[in-house]
From TrEMBL, chains A, B:
Lineage: Bacteria, Bacillati, Actinomycetota, Actinomycetes, Mycobacteriales
Residue ranges flagged as DNA-binding region: 44-63
Source organism: Antrihabitans cavernicola
Domain spans labelled HTH tetR-type: 21-81
A Pfam family hit: TetR_C_13
UniProt GO molecular function: DNA binding
Name of protein: TetR/AcrR family transcriptional regulator
Length: 224, 224
């Protein structure tokens, strides 16, 4: 799990030349693209060599085997997903910020009609049962994602928008759960309906833990 | 999509002998087991022949190609998942019934530490982008699942437990979304935490649409 976020180097070597690092990165990018399109299992090292323009000896210089390359792809995809929404989560410190983040995700997947779903979710579905190393990396990736959502909720604790007794860890986990389910169903249906309803539910769930002003419309109507 | 729930026969033939039907079913079961363990892409027709004890000519008598067999596996897995929870959903006509259904799902996945996740969800993640036929079958499978959840909510409309203006289609979609996200995260983490938090959120979301007595604890406490 330490691999995520740390500087990754070639097998057995602490440093890479700039050119070596570029070659290694090129191999990972090519592998990540192939895996995103067709899954890990259908992607061969020959495919990766062809797509990255590298020889077998080059590829094996950087990766001991397909598992090692797959793990590097997991790390890369996790970074890619988190980096893509970093500006939305980093600047969010309110329910309105979370709603803007959710709307941006919905819009992104609406434009691509759900194709590809979530890169991390897809890898998790394919690898969790077959590779313990990959599963641990994916678990760490989800945990990082959840931590970034939680950081927004913690900020809302700080401003007093969120009630002091609201458990931000549980709320963040529930939001990530709705998001992952929504992305899988959007990938399958090519519609963002489940993603929208799931995220809407999750943010209303947060609103219920807020100090007045954000309450669920119907909850207010019932006037109990 | 019509394939789900209809009587399926050999390619080009309206009926099968009992023995033919048994052979066909044996091939599908063997394929479904292999796909569940290792995914569609890693499962070859040779694997299926070996596991089912059938020859190439037998296999091709029933299935034109791997895609045809894969689609039969999708249909079979959908039936299996829905049949397994049929007794819980069929008898449920209340929020308490939905809570019992959710608890049974959590317990099932706790016992197996999340391994395998949801067979339909796994197939959806692997096939939605690569096979349009499979995607449509999986979409139909999710729709059937959602319909069964919605039937419980409609029954709650009937008894007056659910408010008349509650949109049961949207509530059912939100429940399925939380369920799928929870299963994927449970498969990855080997813990049922996300599944529990997701389903709990979804059923509290339903409770908010109920006529008194089921309200979220904190919502009541806030007393607005």
């Amino acid at each position: 799990m330490a691999a995520i976020g740390s500087t990754r180097t070639a097998q057995g070597g602490p440093t890479l030349t700039a050119r070596g690092a570029a070659t290694r990165a090129r191999i990972i990018e090519a592998a990540a693209d192939l895996v995103f399109q067709q899954g890990v299992s259908a992607t061969t090292l020959d495919d990766v060599m062809a797509a990255s323009g590298t020889s077998k000896s080059q590829l094996y210089h950087y990766f001991a085997d397909k598992d090692a390359l797959t793990n590097a792809v997991v790390v890369r995809e996790t970074e890619r997903v988190l980096d893509a929404q970093d500006h939305l989560l980093r600047d969010a410190n309110s329910l309105a910020g979370l709603r803007a983040w959710a709307a941006a995700i919905v819009e992104f997947h609406r434009e691509r009609r759900g194709v590809g779903g979530c890169p991390i979710g897809s890898l998790a579905g394919e690898l969790s049962d077959s590779s313990e190393d990959a599963r641990l990396l994916l678990q760490a990736g989800f945990a990082m994602w959840e931590d970034r959502i939680r950081a927004v909720l913690d900020a809302m604790h700080g401003t007093g928008e969120l009630r002091a007794d609201a458990v931000t860890a549980d709320l963040a986990a529930a939001i990530l759960t709705a998001l992952q389910g929504g992305l899988l169903l959007t990938q399958t249906t090519h519609l963002t309906r489940h993603l929208e309803l799931g995220l809407q539910m999750a943010l209303e769930h947060v609103a219920l833990e807020c100090n007045t002003g954000h309450r669920h419309k119907k909850a207010r109507q019932s006037g109990q």
